[in-house]
Amino acid sequence: MSSTSESGFESCIGKGTKVSGKLFFKAPARIEGEVDGEITGDEIVIENGAVVTARISAKRVSIAGNVSGEIVARERIELLPTARVRCSISTPSLALADGAKFDGDCKMPRERAAA
Predict the structure, then answer these.
(1) Rounded Cα gap, residues 73 and 62, in angstroms
(2) pTM for the full model?
(3) Residue in 64, 60, 63, 88 with CA at minimum distance from that of residue 74
(4) pLDDT of residue 5
């Protein structure tokens, strides 16, 4: 996820923007501002400097900013070196970079067996 170029994002909540409520993204989304509420999507990237207080449900989540709440990722969660996360996490794959801060609970359910 961290190799995704900025041009690969169709949706972005920019710096200086504050959003409250339920957000649903069909395309990869980048969050640089502030979000309070619920976020649902396929690929969610929370940039350094972003402040998110939300329940996040996605296939993949990459975090470099500040997040509190709950995160459920069907494939993977990646905490980058500048990440500051205070929440419960549920994902089959979790990557924590050196320097990332995580305070919360983590559940790692087994991935579903291939049919």
Answers:
(1) 10
(2) 0.86
(3) 60
(4) 45
